């Protein structure tokens, strides 16, 4: 593939359109800088330029104001995030400890007034009148279902979940399931449900990270199981694209916990690194989700490319290792300056080294990262919040470049 050229970046910068609950003690909220729109656009637009038929359709977004973790996002704010990308999004409620009736009504209302930009899913707690609520929401225009076994404390093999899947099969609705850690036997129960209800379309969120190492083998025999890319670890996404059929992967961001622009960069770069074609990436980016929401037969865009045929570059491997270790320490509230320094030192290659151009870009991003958290304490950075991703964007881009070196970075940032 030819090296993509950077389109002229805009000069605007916007804050991330989400926030935590007002709290004078939450200094992170006060100190968090904005995501630089021109930086993200510089990385995203060259990728989209090589995918002229692609349209971003985010399979995983939220709005709400009552989640105990403090995250807040309105429908208007979500539209403001998606609109510059000309993207649409599936939207559902955040966690609502007092039930989902009012939250689902808000979702339906916001989607109805979004001029087609938002597609509503209803969120259900199987132990709280779920079938009646699902029926009500379908009658009001809901196009799918969100289940979160961990936050709503239920097992996927319960009778109540099977009742939900029976309705989903009847209406050919997608069922998106939180698939992070801490959910016992999630993958195996999901495969069982997909077999019992073949008319339902099951979407495992967050790259199915808890079950990814084994579940990919079963995907060809379970064509109604899909995996979304709302995850932030590049090597997990690289693994997903290498081993899972591309027609069973859906672009997603997890906004407001993720960023559609940033997650699109991770998704497309990891897909191209794995060897997906432009048509396959177009399906991942939104074309397949369109078909699922319409109740149509999913696209078959071919088999997975398989594991890399060439060994990973050990220079890039060192940068990736230190960058991800630094990110992990930041999230855990541990001091990270030394590990960030090692990531930068790992980029220090001779000018004639084949990795030199990419290493210059990663060095620039690591320097941006150091500047972005200069006034933030380790304790504040460990506080769960929607600002944290904004703070960590430069280092995550550096790690992504290290994990996807076959996909060129924006030309101007390479000093070309």
What's the arrangement of secondary structure elements?
Blueprint: H1 27-31, H2 37-49, E1 57-63, H3 75-82, E2 88-93, H4 101-112, E3 118-120, E4 122-123, H5 130-139, E5 145-147, H6 159-171, E6 174-177, H7 186-196, E7 201-204, H8 212-215, E8 225-228, H9 234-243, E9 249-250, H10 260-274, H11 278-293, H12 314-332, H13 337-346, H14 356-372, H15 378-381, H16 388-403
Parallel strand pairs: 1-2, 2-3, 4-5, 5-6, 6-7, 7-8, 8-9
Helix pairs in contact: 2-10, 5-6, 9-10, 10-16, 12-13, 12-16, 13-14, 14-16
What does this molecule look like?
Helix 9 packs across helix 10, helix 10 packs parallel to helix 16 and helix 12 runs antiparallel to helix 16. The protein is an alpha/beta fold and 416 residues long. It starts with 26 loop residues before the first helix and ends in a 13-residue tail after the last helix. The chain is built from 16 helices and nine strands.
Strand content: 5-15%
Number of helices: 16
- What is the residue-averaged pLDDT? 88
**Proper CATH architecture of the largest domain:** Alpha-Beta Barrel
Tally of domains:
2
CATH superfamily of the largest domain: Metal-dependent hydrolases
What's the overall geometry? Answer: globular
Give a nutshell description of this structure.
The protein is of the alpha/beta class and 416 residues long.
Which characteristics define this entry?
416 residues; alpha/beta; TIM Barrel; 3-stranded parallel sheet; 16 helices; 8% strand; globular
